[in-house]
Amino acid sequence: MANISKDELEWIERVRSEGNVPTLGADDDYSYGWASPPGDKFLVRGPDYFSTKAKVPAGESLLKPLGFDWIRSSAKIGEILNHPDNRIGKAIKDSFPTGPRPFIWAFNIQLPCKENYNLVAYFAATEPVAKGSLIDQFLKGDDHFRNSRLKLIADIVKGPWIVKKAVGEQAICIVGRVLSCKYVIGDNFFEVDIDVGTNIMAKAVFHLAFGYFTALTVDIAFLIESKTKSELPEKILGCFRFSDLNPASAMAMEASNSLDRSATSLQQASGATWLWKSIGKGISSIPHSGTQESDSMLE
């Protein structure tokens, strides 16, 4: 993966504004659209975390925000960058028919509902990956390694009290321990398909939040968890914000038959016991008829 060229940087800026959800500027707080929040709003493991447990503001993300799509479909859509109607894939082929292409990351969050919805965030790598680095290990590693390292931080910036209480403040999870993840690797991209419907508690929280989607502003960050001192401090891969999304405004897309079959996955056996930090506390504070055991917490 080479350093990104001037043409690629210009292409990134153009593609950012071409999605069906408007790109928000600095003065467009909490209106309908998407943006990339400052990395410093997320707290991550600092350089002395294993001795002090101290977290620090994350700083600038490693990847450059490229785009965001809000999609609905009659069937679950996976392998979004391989989909024939995906705008990012088309833009790459049209703009870079030959020669080197930008390396793209995509996080495809599959949301279970009567109709299937997808939150898809795209990022572009602007620096080469150092051999042996944590990102290099993640890209070349097996699914067991990736499932044990990919971390998500979610923050309800604006929304009803009941949703904030359910999710908690800066909720954290190791995604592969909670939800079924599929990793899709191409010559110039890396995609993670995250199926929210594969965990009963995550599905319940989503259904609660979905009723308030038009009034929610949510910040989400992805990073690779550091487990040794040499891997500290943690760095955010990429982060994005979506605000006031209306299900009716989601872009219609039909699943490709071959991709839809390959994207179908079983719930991970361990998923039921690993939940977001604070979700257990939040859900237990909401009036309901059942009972819930406490869950393991992550830092």
From TrEMBL:
It holds the Pfam family EDR2_C. It comes from the Eukaryota. Residues 34-245 form the Protein ENHANCED DISEASE RESISTANCE 2 C-terminal domain. PANTHER family: ENHANCED DISEASE RESISTANCE-LIKE PROTEIN (DUF1336) (PTHR12136:SF101), ENHANCED DISEASE RESISTANCE-RELATED (PTHR12136). This is Protein ENHANCED DISEASE RESISTANCE 2. It comes from Momordica charantia (Bitter gourd). The lineage of its organism: Eukaryota, Viridiplantae, Streptophyta, Embryophyta, Tracheophyta.
